[in-house]
């Protein structure tokens, strides 16, 4: 029963929106909207569950003095402070937006940290671009030429060198070949998501139930 009930619920909840899409009846549509609302509520309960799991894992790491445990202290301290001022700002309702301290911490700590993290991606992008743009074969050569054309048409330095003559070519590359490739990738991802959804609905994929019987 511990596995049968979740499988039945998953099947009903997964198949009903598909059924409601093809049967435009008010009662069915209202039930589908109620189901969407219930999904939001379940997701809201999943957030504190994730917070409890995060706190538990980091407390264990601190107690056992595992590698990087001081960073766990910083993480938990930030979680408590930001959570406190965020909740206080919502409960009191005295502010038009967030709590002033929350906004101060977010603007001067969280935002710079996010910018730093994403700026580090530039080095990985440069490394990946160097490996991908080496003209070892015809496909790599075409990729290299397309990258040069796009960069020369989109960056100010390239626009200055070419006098703007590369901009229309760059736009054509982005609007035609690049858009076609993106559509192919999106279609493939959609088919993969659909196949996984069917496996979950039919009970073929049951990894979310864990190993318990």
General description of the model:
The chain is mostly helical. Among the domains are: 1-64, no CATH class; 67-131, no CATH class. Helices cover 81% and strands 0% of the residues. It is built from eight helices and no strands. It has helices at residues 4-22, 26-63, 69-92, 100-132, 138-154, 156-162, 167-175, 177-201. The N and C termini lie close together (9 Å).
Quick description:
This protein has 213 residues and is an all-alpha fold. It has helices spanning 4-22, 26-63, 69-92, 100-132, 138-154, 156-162, 167-175, 177-201.
How much helical structure, as a percent, in the residues? over 70%
Cα Rg: 26 Å
User: What does the main sheet amount to?
Assistant: none
Termini gap: 9 Å
Proportion of residues in β-strands = under 5%
What do the pLDDT scores average to? 85
Principal-axis shape equals extended
Structural class: mainly alpha
Number of helices: 8
- Helix and strand string, N-terminal first? HHHHHHHH
Quaternary organization: single chain
Sequence-ordered SSE layout with sheet pairings:
Elements: H1 4-22, H2 26-63, H3 69-92, H4 100-132, H5 138-154, H6 156-162, H7 167-175, H8 177-201
Helix pairs in contact: 1-2, 2-3, 3-4, 5-6, 5-7, 7-8
């Amino acid at each position: 029963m511990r596995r049968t009930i979740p499988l039945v619920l998953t099947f009903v909840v997964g198949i009903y929106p598909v059924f409601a899409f093809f049967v435009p009846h008010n009662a069915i549509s209202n039930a589908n909207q109620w189901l969407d609302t219930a999904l939001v509520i379940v997701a809201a309960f999943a957030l504190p569950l994730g917070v409890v799991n995060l706190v538990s894992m980091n407390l264990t790491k601190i107690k056992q003095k595992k590698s990087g445990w001081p960073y766990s202290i910083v993480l938990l301290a930030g979680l408590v402070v930001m959570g406190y001022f965020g909740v206080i700002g919502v409960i009191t309702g005295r502010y038009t937006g967030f709590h002033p301290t929350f906004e101060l911490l977010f603007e001067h700590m969280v935002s710079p940290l996010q910018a730093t993290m994403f700026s580090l991606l530039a080095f990985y992008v440069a490394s990946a671009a160097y490996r991908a743009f080496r003209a070892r074969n015809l496909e790599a050569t075409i990729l290299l030429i397309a990258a040069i054309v796009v960069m020369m048409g989109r960056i100010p330095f390239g626009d200055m060198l070419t006098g703007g003559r590369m901009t229309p070519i760059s736009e054509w590359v982005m609007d035609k070949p690049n858009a076609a490739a993106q559509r192919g990738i999106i279609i493939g991802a959609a088919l993969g998501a659909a196949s996984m959804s069917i496996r979950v609905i039919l009970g073929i994929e049951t990894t979310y139930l864990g190993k318990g019987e």
